[in-house]
Structure formats: structure tokens, C-alpha cells
Amino acid sequence: MVRAPVIPLALALLVACGCGGESAAHHARYLYMQKCAACHGVSADAKTPVTNAQNLLDPANRPQLEQVRRAIIDGRPGMPKGLLGGSDVDQIAAWLSTGKP
What gap in Å lies between CA 75 and CA 79, rounded to an integer? Predict the structure, then answer.
């Protein structure tokens, strides 16, 4: 019968979807390293390559969620707008503003 192989396959797909994959924090860190670290630094104690760019990983410079969102969406002097889009904007803004890199 055709049904028998379908059930184990469906169960395997459900387990694969629920297990593994990257966490939200891992994805946010990946986005930061790809889009932000070149100017804002790679670690909390690193100097930023761009002198007027704050180190966003340094707890002393932790930005507010809406500050990050607006900077990504609208840009800033020396920073182009639209570096990220969609849910990535909210995800990295939440990650940076909570200080959980």
C-alpha cells in the first residue's frame, strides 16, 4: 500500500523541521558579522575600523531597539540605508539592544 511509506516520511520531515537549524541569536550574529562588523567592530573590546562608528557590541554603547531599526532602514551619515530588510531588521535590532551577542 502507498500509505505506509508516507507516514514515516511525514514524521521524519516534522522531526527535521523541529530539530537543529540555527537559533535566532545565531542568525542575528551572522547578520551582524556580514553587514555591520566591518564598521562597528567584531567584538565588544575591539576598536572599530571606522573611527566615527560606535562599537555596537560594547555594553557601554548598547543602542536602543528603535535606534537600530531606524539606522538600518533610513541610514545614517556614512551608512547606507536598507542594509537589511524584512524580519532581519527587527531580529538584529532586538539582538543588539538586549546585549546578548
Answer: 5
The alpha carbon of residue 50 and the mean position of all alpha carbons in its chain are separated, in whole angstroms, by 20
Comparing 21 with 67, which gets the higher pLDDT? 67
First to last CA, the chain: 51
CA–CA distance, 33 with 39 (Å, rounded to integer): 10
C-alpha cell at 50: 571606522
Q: What is the pLDDT of residues 13-36, one digit of tens each?
A: 444 444 445 788 899 999 999 999
- CA 16/CA 61 separation, integer angstroms: 39
Cell of 101: 551577542
CATH (residue range 22-98) = 1.10.760.10
